[in-house]
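Tokenise the fold.
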Amino acid sequence: MLARRLPGLLPDLSLTDALEVSAVHSLSGILPSDAPLVQHPPFINPHHTASAVAIIGGGTRGIRPGAMSLAHRGVLFLDEAPEFASNVIDALRQPLESGQVLISRASQSAVFPARFQLVLAANPCPCGRGGTVSDQCQCTPLIRRRYLDRISGPIRDRIDIHRSLTMPARPELMHAIDRSRSTSELAAVVAQARQRQSARLKDTPWRVNCDVPGSELRKRWPIDESARAVLESQLRAQRLSARSSDRVLALAWSVADIRDHEGPNRDDVALALALRRGTPLTPDLRDLVVAS
């Protein structure tokens, strides 16, 4: 349900992006004749039995784009992610870094754009009952470990936000419903954050925070001393790698944009760290999320 709401939070595609997405969809043969221009971010949700060719792209008679390219400038949602073949999941590594996928065959090669937001969903164990209130799971610790290890470490390192969802009690659910906001209301907040990003990145080759290399983020837009100290302490303690530190910094910039800050402060970095690690949010950080 959360993944399907995500495209509704994203702004409509610019003309350049719409032309790119429409060209890929046209090449794949799925562009509707009555809507020749894709204006909204695509949402691609392949089944977990999809082959590597279906996800990456390819073919025998001609190279066609796969789900990764069809999700360009949109969302690629892999439900039951551990059930996908390991080679399919690992094939996401290079496109997540470069934003494109290169497909080579004996007679021809093709490069397709593939800059998408990846959303993975997984049960806590094969039976799906682990972590529930009743906790009727019969899976052994070894079975659970093997199940979760199907998503490799390099892929986990490329995922910026990790969250574990548990079944809420009825009073918690009612309280959450009272404080909830509609998709259209949150979409307005996202649109304002995107406008801040666009203004900051106007004269650069990048469009959103996650596109900017970490070295450029640090050089062009330095953060305040207290926020930088939080990141550096995590690096010294080896709780973050160089790559994950860059990703936390980009996420902190997105948090700051949503909260209408000039740049990430200490709280923004702390929230980005908590979101990446999947740790329970402290009351003060939880209030920040609600306020954002």
User: Anything to note?
Assistant: The chain has two domains: 2-122, 174-291. The chain has a mean pLDDT of 88. The chain is about 50% helix and 10% strand. Strands lie at 43-44, 57-58, 64-65, 75-78, 100-104, 109-113, 117-120.
